[in-house]
Amino acid sequence: MSFETTGLSKNLLKTIREIGYVFPTSIQQEAIPEILQGRDLLACAQTGTGKTASFALPIVDILQNTRKRNRLPRAIIMAPTRELAAQVEENIIQYAGGTGLSTVLLVGGEIVTSQERKLKKGVDIIIATPGRLIDMFERGRMVLIDIKIVVIDEADRMLDMGFMPDVDRILAMLPKLRQTLLFSATIAKEIQQISSQYQLNPKQITITRQAKTADTIDQHVIHVDTINKRKVMRKILSEHPSNEPTIVFCNRKRDVDIVMRSLVRHGYAAQAFHGDMSQHARNDALDSFKRGESRILVTSDVAARGIDVSGVTLVINFDMPVNNEDYVHRIGRTGRAGNTGKAITFVTKSEKAKLSRLEHLIKKTISPLMVEIAEEEKAPVVVKERSQRPERAERSSRIRTSNNRILKEEEFPSNSGPIIGFGDFIPAFMLIDPYSKMNATTA
Ligand code: AMP
User: Fold this and answer.
1) Do 16 and 104 have their domain in common?
2) Is residue 382 part of a domain?
3) Which helix (DSSP H) or strand (DSSP E) does residue 401 occupy?
4) CATH number of 364's domain
């Protein structure tokens, strides 16, 4: 099937050719004709399948061919995160080039006045996170009586993030006569309920099995002790083409910074990206990664959904995700739109059972990869110097390797390694968690 048979207008077909899309993806083949005909849609599709274009292209087409009333907004697209919303807006601006349609991005962390100014001037398409959308509505800055199409993107994520009551409120205040398009990676009971309440005989499309990982991603696990993770990561990075973008996922924001700083210290161009950074800093980090100025983006799960950076060829799960579902989204940052990619997940001894549950979820065995790190790179055996008084011992403790070399601070292990005490006797003060004591200085 070609784009010509989807029913899109000539100018959009031309834009698509210029962008370089040759064939519509499965979701685009199924969704575009239905949306153009005005039908509601309940689509179960993963990120990376081309789902944004599947709703954005027909929306642009419909709006360019229908009359505006007093420059009131005619479409709303809701997304769970600022980054995803920004990306959707980027795509729409690209698809709407030459049509004269205008957009506004309503997300938290951006200056309200510039958003208000745009709304006042008149926009056709609002792209928003639910919270800021309600906020603007309550300030009386938006008139929504002319909304013809509403999209709820990544509905399952909205549910996880607790946005469903906001989404519900927004849907309830929109005109009844409208088209509602619901996209979700999984269709949970609550999403089905929203669909029954707000959609009229929706066309149901399922593009992939639930929680299926894309076949274009070469998936591996590496069994590694926490203490050796950074060394193994550097080994992987050193063997990966040096100009190819890589995303590294950590579970905790604190560790994102630690891992980023460690990479920078070892000469890698890395940027951190997580929810505790200001919106400005997040935009800068993402832009620099997109432009290729930094090769590695170290991030928490904030970026797992939706972030679309073309050409990411490697994803490293420095930590196994807390929720197995996030694994699918994390590794979905690579192997997008038919390209191939590699995903490597670090698994510690205590996470083996979790790995089995993950493999059960994705219905796939993830093959283990052996990575040799040089003997001198291996985590040192830790010896603590003797001291009479516990409190003094902690202050003056030095870490020696088994060959009696005192470690520099940046070589300190990042997690509890073996502690060699005095024969069989290990004094209580040595049973401290080195991670909690040392992570501020770890390399
Ligand atoms: P999405 O699933 O919307 O996040 O899209 C993933 C990526 O696929 C984005 O980089 C799109 O630009 C790209 N894309 C969307 N549709 C097509 C297509 N028909 N051919 C090639 N790439 C596409």
Assistant:
1) yes
2) no
3) none
4) 3.40.50.300
